[in-house]
Structure formats: structure tokens, C-alpha cells
Design a protein that fits this description.
The complex is a heterodimer of chains A (501) and B (185). With 501 residues, chain A is mainly α. Helix content of chain A is 73%, strand content 1%. Chain A has one domain (2-495). The longest helix of chain A has 49 residues, at 91-139. The model of chain A has no long low-confidence stretch (mean pLDDT 84). Helix content of chain B is 63%, strand content 0%. The chains are: A mainly alpha (501), B mainly alpha (185). Chains A and B meet through helix 7, strand 2, helix 8, helix 16 and helix 17 of A and helix 1, helix 2, helix 3, helix 4 and helix 5 of B.
Chain lengths: 501, 185
């Protein structure tokens, strides 16, 4: 029960008026960014990073705790009301959620999603509190070969599972890896692909890449279609979001099942919460078919509850993987990693020893953040939808200015603005031709880890490649990867066969 | 992140397009996706040039700084080739139904947004945050279809000043003052 007393200390640290204010501000801004279509929780974290620069580390991470979950609460609101999911993790929620809204049950759908996000986040964060220190103990046994296996796992899984075309997924991954190579090589000190531009010696910052690919690319994408796409309209919400006792009982098993799907995926690097949300959605649909009165297609409350809980559960345990292993399993976690490094902290097994107070304050704020978000989102979800009353051109103009601000504020270098513009154009082109963007982020994030661990492993073995598959941990990782690939292949083949019938 | 909802709509349009005989399209119609293969090849070429000209410090242990990039370059060229073959064999369907141009890009708006951001980057240091951010806001809102240029001008100045106050004065971020240096602290 050592964790519990440490957590209580964390709460004591987080419960100052000032820190509570930061959680609230973070949750508020995170929801606001998440609500905007096309911008998910990773953008919320990237755009709000500069806001935290003038805070002390504890205050900054307390605020991040709010932002982190806030983006996830926000993105399903728009999905339900307008059929435009704010991020890829909200797509599964949107199917049944928007149907519920069309049938006049928008308040119930919003409430189901908010409570689902709360339950998923709460259970996952509790698990992190009790198991992250143990995970850190295990992580000490990980050597370079094991870390390389983890990175390869993340690369292949993201590129092949998440995207619909393997070639497109791998291409996006290769672009990400190439971006990660720029800068001074940490092992030998050689300057790589910098064209002797001093601003590139430190490499291209993850914030520049995220803002460019995800935010600026999205603005370009919206601009390219501004006179093309039909106008969207939100469904008006009447009444306060609430659930009757019957609806609550109906949704409860789905929330729990969704959480069960989400929890393991926070630690497995497959590029975020898309996979578990769709798995949770698919399972609920299967179960629904066996019931006497199938609800799916008619606005099933369980179709909203399960994916939403899964998404937030994934993010909760992803935070655990980041803190204990130093392993970012999603783009959002990767930017959090950048934030840690900005303060000179290195997440990983040692963090729990060296910066225990900060870690526990952060974990405690995740709980506080969840409660704040439930309060912000349950009664006020319809108010958030009013954000969309801001004309689209002002909304995106504001986002663009924030892109500029965020990039300039992190480095105070104008060169970064040119780089982000170029990367934004790249992001637009890739969006235009239907390339997945998650593999780019994973490549950028885990590229350096993959390279250093590969080279360290081979240096210590004197150039033997066999060192990479020398331990039981690596066998297990490559084995699971093979199973995942086989399952994906099997699913694609059967899906095609079913289409033909 | 991915535009999956958009894709389903796209496929619906493709189905329609097949039914409507369009004018005989040129070779490039629906094959503009080759651009991505081209970009990949260009990245590969840049990396190759970088690997050849790299100054590897003496005493660098093998595998050295070029080892991992070489693996990536090989992957990039293979993928570029595969992409090119895939695009050549299965071009995108071109749609010409009424006024709906799902696959066509609004180059004018796009260039306007691009230009605004470039202007922002160029102006930031010489004239300061306030004016360059206002230019950016004004340009993007204009590109995205705002019809009130004068009102926008006021709004963008107010927006830029709010950020300057909140982040510069409030949170202590150092935003360049430019020609207005001294007026704002």
C-alpha cells in the first residue's frame, strides 16, 4: 500500500488553490481544442505546451493532466452532434452517438459518452497508480535489444493495423523516421542531414512536426475544400444531459467492457486508441445481435458507452507506460515526453525514484482532472457545441495563429516557422491522398529510440545481428507481432470474401 | 487523424462517377498521387546525398551514424517504387458531377493560407508579433471565405493584442515587439 500513501502525498501537493486552477484551465482549454473538428487531444497538448512554459514543472504537469484527458472528452461531443469526430479516437463513438442525437436523444448520448470517458479514465489511472512502480521494476530488465523489439513492434503494428493500405502506412512511417534522423547523431557526434544549418543541429522538434502535420496540415486541408464540401450543421440540444436509472444500468456493462479493451492498449504501442475503440464498438455490436431487441442502428446507448470508455482507458494506461517505461504509445504521449524533456526530466524507470513528488502529483492531478472534466462536460456539453457558432473562417484563423505562436514560443527561432510551413504542406498532401498520419508521429517519436537501441545492441555484440533475437522478451514481442499481423491479414481476407458474396 | 469519414463519402462519389461517362481523361487524371511517390523519392535522394557527404568523426564505432539512415533510404526507395506502381495501375476516379468537385483542390484558398503563414514568418522579427499575427489571422479568415475585410482587420488586431497581453504580459512569453517595441513592454 506504499503507492496509496504516495498518492495521498501527491493529492496534498495538487490540492493547492493555484494548482487546482491549473487543472481547471487545462481541462477547459483541452476540451475546447478537442471540440473543434479535426483537432484531437494530441493537438490540444501541442498547442497548449507554450502556455505552460512559464509555470514550474509541477504546475505545468498538473495543467497537462487536465489537457490530456480534456481533448478526449471534447472530441466525441462534436461527433455526436455533428457527425464530425474531433479525432480518430471518436470515430467509433460517432456511429451510434449521432444516430441517438438524430432521434432526439442527444443529451443522453452526450451523458453516456462523458460518463464513459470518466469511468474508463478513472479505472485506467487507478491501475497505473498501483502497477506503474512494478512496471518500472520490470523495465529495468529491458536492454537495447528489447527496446528495439518494442520500437519495431510499434512501427509495424501502427503502419499495418491502423491504416487501410500497408504501403501507405509504411510510407508515412518512413517519412516520420527520415524526419527523426535530422540533427547531430547522439552516439558519434556526426552532423546528419542538416545542410550545415545551425538551427537543425538539435533536430526538428516534435512540436514543430506535430503542429505542422496535424494542425497546419488540417488548416490547409480545410482551405482546399472550403468551397467544395457541404456545410455542416449541429443538432440542437434541448434539456440537460442526464441518464435515467434504466439507461444507466443499460450502459454500465458496456462502459466496463470498453475499459477492459482500452486498458491493455495503453501499454501496447499500436498508435493510440483507434484500435481499442473499434474493437469495443465491434464487440458491443456482436453482443447486441444476440439480444431479443437489437438496438444497434437505432441509436444504441452501448455503442456510445463502450468506445468512449475504451478510448480514455487507453490514454490512462498510456500515461503509465510513458512514466514507467519512457515509452510513448501515442502521439499525445510523445508530446508529453517532449514536455518532460523540456524540463530536463527523462521518463522511465528512474523517474519514480528521482522525481517521485512530481510523478505522484501528476497522477493525483489526473484524478482531479477527470472529476473537473466530468463537471465541465456533463452539464455543459451543449454549451461546448456553441463553439461551432464561431464562423469557420475565424475558428481556423485563430488556430493558425496559435500554430505560429506555439512553434515560435517553444524555440524562439523563425527558422522553425519555415520548417513548420513546409511540414504543413507535406501533411496536407498526405491527407489529400489518404495517407494515415499516425505512423508519421510514431516514426518521429520512436525513431531515435529504435536507432540508438539497435546500434547499442550491435556494438556490444560486436556486429552480431543475432543479438536482436537473443532473449525471451524479444521472442515474446516478435511472436505477438506475428500474431497481430496474421490476425489483421485474416480479417482483411474474410472482409473481402464477405464483400464478394 | 485519418480522414476515414471523408473516405467513405469519397467512395460514394466514385461509384457515381463510374456511371457518368466523363470526357476522356488525360494520363495525369487521377494519377496526381504520383506526387507522393515523387516526394518520397526526393526525401530518399536528400538522405542519400547526406549519407555520402557526411563527415563521420574518426573513431566512431560500427555501426556508425550512417547505418540506420541507409536502412531507411533503402525502405524509402522501395516504397516510392511500390507507390508509383500502385498509382499507375489504379488511378483515382475523377468526378465531374454537377458542381461537386470532391477530388479537386481549391488552389486559390490554399495559396492564400500558405502566403499568409509565409508573410507571418517573414514579418515576425522586423515588424513584431502584433502586426504579423494580425496579418496571419486576416489572411486565413479571408482565404476561408470571410466577406468583411474591414471588420476582419479590426478583429485580427484585437485577437493579436489579446494573445500578446495574455501570453506576453500575463505568462511572460517573449514575443517580438518589432516596430512597436517600447509601446508594449
Amino acid at each position: 500500500m506504499e503507492s496509496l500513501s504516495l498518492l495521498l502525498e501527491g493529492f496534498a501537493q495538487a490540492f493547492t488553490p493555484m494548482n487546482l486552477l491549473w487543472v481547471f484551465v487545462g481541462a477547459f482549454l483541452g476540451t475546447a481544442v478537442g471540440v473543434i473538428p479535426g483537432l484531437g487531444s494530441s493537438m490540444a497538448v501541442a498547442l497548449l505546451l507554450p502556455v505552460t512554459f512559464s509555470l514550474d514543472p509541477v504546475g505545468a504537469f498538473i495543467m497537462f493532466a487536465g489537457v490530456y484527458f480534456g481533448g478526449l472528452f471534447g472530441d466525441s461531443t462534436m461527433g455526436i452532434l455533428m457527425n464530425t469526430p474531433g479525432g480518430s479516437t471518436a470515430i467509433a463513438t460517432t456511429f451510434e452517438g449521432h444516430r441517438m442525437a438524430k432521434l432526439g436523444r442527444a443529451p443522453q448520448a452526450l451523458a453516456t459518452s462523458a460518463i464513459g470517458a470518466f469511468i474508463g479514465g478513472l479505472i485506467a489511472t487507478s491501475l497505473v497508480v498501483f502497477f506503474a512502480p512494478k512496471l518500472a521494476d520490470i523495465a529495468v530488465m529491458f536492454g537495447p535489444a528489447e527496446y528495439f523489439a518494442l520500437a519495431v513492434f510499434a512501427f509495424i503494428a501502427t503502419a499495418s493495423v491502423v491504416s487501410d493500405s500497408v504501403i501507405k502506412g509504411l510510407s508515412a512511417l518512413a517519412i516520420g523516421l527520415a524526419l527523426a534522423m535530422v540533427g547531430i547523431d547522439g552516439i558519434s557526434g556526426a552532423s546528419r542531414f542538416t545542410a550545415d544549418v545551425p538551427q537543425l543541429f538539435d533536430g526538428i522538434s516534435i512540436i514543430v512536426i506535430t503542429v505542422g502535420i496535424l494542425a497546419l496540415g488540417e488548416v490547409f486541408h480545410v482551405a482546399s475544400r472550403i468551397h467544395r464540401d457541404p456545410k455542416l450543421s449541429a443538432i440542437a440540444v434541448s434539456g440537460r444531459p442526464y441518464l435515467s436509472k434504466r439507461e444507466f444500468r443499460e450502459a454500465l456493462p458496456a462502459w466496463l467492457r470498453g475499459t477492459a479493451f482500452g486498458v491493455p492498449f495503453g501499454v501496447i504501442p499500436v498508435g493510440g486508441a483507434e484500435v481499442p475503440t473499434f474493437m469495443a464498438y465491434g464487440t458491443e455490436r456482436q453482443l447486441d445481435r444476440k439480444r431479443r431487441d437489437p438496438q444497434f442502428g437505432k441509436g444504441a446507448i452501448r455503442g456510445v458507452a463502450a468506445p468512449e470508455a475504451a478510448g480514455n482507458a487507453t490514454s490512462g494506461t498510456a500515461m503509465g507506460a510513458l512514466l514507467a517505461l519512457g515509452l510513448p504509445t501515442s502521439a499525445t504521449a510523445a508530446i508529453m515526453l517532449a514536455a518532460f524533456q523540456q524540463y530536463g526530466l527523462q521518463p522511465g524507470p528512474l523517474l519514480f525514484e528521482r522525481n517521485a513528488d512530481l510523478v505522484w502529483a501528476l497522477l493525483a492531478s489526473l484524478f482531479i482532472g477527470l472529476v473537473v472534466l466530468l463537471v465541465l462536460n456533463l452539464p455543459f456539453a451543449p454549451l461546448w457545441a456553441k463553439l461551432l457558432l464561431i464562423p469557420k473562417h475565424y475558428l481556423y484563423a485563430g488556430i493558425t495563429v496559435f500554430c505560429g505562436l506555439g512553434v515560435y514560443a517553444t524555440s524562439a527561432a523563425v527558422a522553425d516557422l519555415y520548417i513548420v510551413l513546409a511540414i504543413g504542406v507535406l501533411g496536407f498532401i498526405l491527407r489529400r491522398y489518404g495517407f494515415p498520419l499516425a505512423p508519421i508521429m510514431i516514426g518521429v517519436v520512436l525513431g531515435p529510440l529504435a536507432e540508438t537501441s539497435l546500434r547499442n545492441a550491435m556494438m556490444s555484440s560486436g556486429g552480431q545481428v543475432s543479438v536482436l533475437v537473443d532473449s525471451p522478451v524479444t521472442w515474446a514481442l516478435y511472436g505477438i507481432l506475428a500474431l497481430v499481423l496474421a490476425y489483421t491479414l485474416w480479417r482483411r481476407v474474410t472482409a473481402k470474401a464477405r464483400q464478394d458474396v | 487523424m485519418t480522414t476515414e469519414t471523408g473516405n467513405t463519402a469519397d467512395t460514394a462519389q466514385e461509384v457515381l462517377a463510374v456511371e457518368q461517362p466523363a470526357d476522356r481523361p488525360g494520363f495525369w487524371a487521377g494519377r496526381s498521387g504520383l506526387v507522393v511517390a515523387g516526394i518520397l523519392a526526393a526525401i530518399g535522394a536528400y538522405l542519400t546525398a547526406g549519407i555520402i557527404t557526411m563527415d563521420v568523426p574518426e573513431g566512431a564505432k560500427a555501426p556508425g551514424p550512417t547505418f540506420f539512415p541507409i536502412l531507411i533510404v533503402i525502405a524509402i526507395f522501395v516504397l516510392a517504387l511500390l507507390l508509383a506502381v500502385q498509382t499507375l495501375r489504379k488511378p483515382e476516379h475523377v468526378t465531374e458531377i454537377g458542381t461537386v468537385h470532391r477530388f479537386h483542390t481549391d488552389w486559390k484558398s490554399l495559396a492564400f493560407v500558405f502566403g499568409s503563414f509565409l508573410a507571418f514568418a517573414l514579418l515576425l522579427i522586423p515588424v513584431g508579433w502584433l502586426i504579423s499575427a494580425a496579418v496571419l489571422f486576416w489572411g486565413v479568415s479571408r482565404a476561408l471565405g470571410s466577406k468583411r475585410p474591414l471588420f476582419d482587420l479590426g478583429l485580427s488586431l484585437v485577437f493579436a493584442s489579446c494573445i500578446q497581453l495574455a501570453f506576453g504580459a500575463g505568462l511572460g512569453l517573449n514575443l517580438p515587439g518589432g516596430i512597436l517595441e517600447g509601446i508594449f513592454g
